[in-house]
């Protein structure tokens, strides 16, 4: 499996694994609780492999940002929780990605990245990060 099969679905917490596509949408399984849900194509669905973070010079793929967090945390959960204060979250993200664009990357985005990293870490899916970055090169 690769990050092409990991989804973020609007108005649904956490991350989902793509199980199959249907005529009217898809079936996804939550990486948090393992429940399967039917998702309509009208929902806003994002593949993690297609998400990027703005920096001052370019857009960095989410997989690279998650790899940097993984390297910083040595494969363990983040030291900063996604419910921390705005200042702590921004300070942590600055350590991970020093040139991120503070005007276009909101605290809500930082919270999502930290939460997504921790979900991938709990599900032992961080190895997908190196596989997806190899495909991008």
List the helices and strands and how they pair.
Elements: E1 6-9, E2 16-21, E3 25-30, E4 36-40, E5 45-47, E6 52-54, E7 59-61, H1 62-73, H2 86-96, H3 107-122, H4 127-136
Antiparallel strand pairs: 1-2, 1-5, 2-3, 3-4, 6-7
What is shown here, in short?
This protein has 137 residues and is of the alpha+beta class. Helices cover 36% and strands 22% of the residues.
Q: Please state how the strands of the largest beta sheet are arranged side by side.
A: 4-3-2-1-5
Number of strands: 7
Residue stretches low in confidence (pLDDT < 50, at least 5 long) are none
Please trace the helix and strand order, writing H or E for each element.
EEEEEEEHHHH
Largest beta sheet, briefly? Answer: 5 strands, antiparallel
Tally of separate domains: 2
Radius of gyration from the CA trace? Answer: 15 Å
End-to-end separation in angstroms reads 18 Å
């Amino acid at each position: 499996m690769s990050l092409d099969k990991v989804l973020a679905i609007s108005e649904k917490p956490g991350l989902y694994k793509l199980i199959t596509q249907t005529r009217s949408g898809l079936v996804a399984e939550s990486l948090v609780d393992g429940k399967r849900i039917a998702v309509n194509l009208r929902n806003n669905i994002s593949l993690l492999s297609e998400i990027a973070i703005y920096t001052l010079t370019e857009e960095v793929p989410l997989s690279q940002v998650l790899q940097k967090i993984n390297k910083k945390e040595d494969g363990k959960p983040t030291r900063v929780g996604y419910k921390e204060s705005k200042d702590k979250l921004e300070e942590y993200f600055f350590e991970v990605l020093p040139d991120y664009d503070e005007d276009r990357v909101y605290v809500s985005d930082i919270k999502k990245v930290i939460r997504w990293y921790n979900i991938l870490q709990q599900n032992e899916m961080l190895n997908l990060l190196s596989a997806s970055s190899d495909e991008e090169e």
